[in-house]
Amino acid sequence: MVLSTAEKSYIYESLSGENTLRTDSRKYNEFRPLKAACSFVPNCNGSSRVYTADGIECITSVKAKVVKTKDLANLIAVEVDIEGQRDNSALCLDLSALLQRSLVNNFDYEILRLTDKYYFQIYVDVLILSVPGDFKNSSYTLYSLLSLISMGSYLALKSCKLPLLTSTTNDREIEEEPSFADDWELATDLIPESSEFQPVLVFVVGLVGSNVIIDPSLDEEQVLENGVCIGYSQGNIVPPIQSVALSTVDGKPFDRKTLAKATGLVKEIGQPVTQALDAILSEEVDEYGSVF
Amino acid sequence: MIISISAPTKLESSEKTVGASIVTPGELITDDPTWMRGHGTYFLNDKTYSSVAGSVLKVNKLLSVVPFKGRYSPETGDHLVGRIVEVGQKRWKVDIGGEHDAVLMLGSVNLPGGILRRKSESDELQMRSFLKEGDLLNAEVQSLFSDGSASLHTRSLKYGKLRNGVFVRVPANLIVRAKNHSHNLPGNVSVILGVNGYCWIYKSSSAASSADHSASTNRTAAEMSSSASGKYQPGQGSVSITRLEQESSWDIYSDKNDKLSTNIKDTISRYKNCLLSLSQCNIGINEVRLVRAYEISLGYGDTNILVREDIRKSIGEQVIFQEKMRGTG
């Protein structure tokens, strides 16, 4: 969908004005309502499903495998698949690489360690369902999915369960392959509750004039002057901080002040978003149970 | 509230006995071969099955299934809002949310310069300066082609390019067909509820509201003057051709918005949220309900709160409740 000139100027003037009016009457720091559930794929260690009211849906699964390696950077593999896009399309590759890099850079490898030689390797697979039908002849891009994807991977990683390790870990030099309990009832969390570690969340912030808005809608993306994605983990801004092309129209440069505003915004919303996601983790999954 | 993430709502298994007139695709409707088969059905081995999910409609011996959901299918005379997707040879392709894009011929638009003007080759060359890709317009379905696609026209001053507002899309089946689909609403805002589910909420043009007015005052003034002087001048009291010419100047294809105050923009986004609330609750949309939803929403205070799903739901419930109380439901 391409907006008409009049619509564009209406949205642009509202957004760049003094008090950032958004056409859907959200505040500048407000997300669109989301729905989420986790641990619903039976054959994965962790899984999540996050979707928006307009039907864009992100399903994430996490699988773990025991590998013998010294190379810690290869322990996390991310793959993003988008319905209707070839899996080697620039969009899929970029999103996979961005998420992988942000996870690799901000990961606590201690939780993946079994012995000095053996580690868990984590595969994060993301599937985006029901992309807007008019995407092909539109002037927005789908890089804004990044924030949805990162919320999905956050939930999937946090809900990830691993079998209980039964072999000894006292002697970490030991050659022996680790062995696990058969009983899934004994499974432990990938990220134990005692751990401070939180998977990274990546937020997409739109820049327009000297204003910043979180979670730009598809209409808004087409009038934004620039977009940046900013990582957030445990109360801090973490890499990546980079600009993303939210529309196919040429952007405008932005100054350091606006960028500082954007990071400030992410810092401000990071805590409530983490809380909202953690609340979902503690909910029971019963969506299908009542139907079947 | 910065973010609301909720768990998916559980599907409620309704205890109500569903009438037998609701069918799903592939369901046997009848094995009586005497029925005539209409839309939404297919015929196999002397039996009639439904091809869509919907309710069975029987008219005399004609059996058809009216689908619950689906793309909009145009009918002659429908008032639509559409978006230009392609500029072609003497015609525009318009997205109207139907199975096919509609066609708008260069000959069926008002060209700048009034009605007496003929279209020329230079008009064909500068079609993009009238309407280009992405532009929104409201139009009427002039005729239908044999494949069900529509041909539109904008040969009236109430049709044409849209400005000063926002676009909202709701399912086409929710729009209640009415005589008139453009309404002036309280708060100095107008709405066009396109039959195809595309809606346009915009600032009421001061000209439009005064035009209604002036037409009537013109007439009374004319009557008064004619009764007073006993003279009658041709064209008195009716819309003069000169006004048509004035209004169909290049202004009608302008892309520039008028000056819009923060207040108006707030009201427009309030109406947008009200429309979406009605759509979310699956309530048929007409002017009366939209105004009621607006009035209810005012009770919630700040426009910002209407983003919340539970608020939208309760607005929908209250609209229905009010209708029941007033006995118009």
TrEMBL record, chain A:
This is Ribosomal RNA-processing protein 42. Its main location: cytoplasm. One of its GO terms (molecular function) is mRNA 3'-UTR AU-rich region binding. Belongs to the RNase PH family. It is found in: Cytoplasm; Nucleus, Nucleolus. GO terms for biological process: exonucleolytic trimming to generate mature 3'-end of 5.8S rRNA from tricistronic rRNA transcript (SSU-rRNA, 5.8S rRNA, LSU-rRNA); nuclear mRNA surveillance; nuclear polyadenylation-dependent rRNA catabolic process; rRNA catabolic process; TRAMP-dependent tRNA surveillance pathway; U1 snRNA 3'-end processing; U4 snRNA 3'-end processing; U5 snRNA 3'-end processing. InterPro entries: ExoRNase_PH_dom1, ExoRNase_PH_dom2_sf, Exosome_comp_Rrp42_subfam, PNPase/RNase_PH_dom_sf, Ribosomal_Su5_D2-typ_SF. Residues 30-163 form the Exoribonuclease phosphorolytic domain. It comes from Ogataea philodendri. It holds the Pfam family RNase_PH. Keywords: Cytoplasm, Exosome. GO terms for cellular component: cytoplasmic exosome (RNase complex); nuclear exosome (RNase complex); nucleolus.
UniProtKB/TrEMBL annotation, chain B:
InterPro entries: Exosome_cplx_N_dom, Exosome_RNA_bind1/RRP40/RRP4, KH_dom_type_1, KH_dom_type_1_sf, NA-bd_OB-fold, S1_RRP4. One of its GO terms (cellular component) is nuclear exosome (RNase complex). Residues 22-57 form the Exosome complex component N-terminal domain. It comes from Ogataea philodendri. Keywords: Exosome, Nucleus, RNA-binding, rRNA processing. Its main location: nucleus. It comes from the Eukaryota. This is Ribosomal RNA-processing protein 4. Residues 165-205 form the K Homology domain. It is found in: Nucleus. Residues 219-238 are annotated as: Disordered.
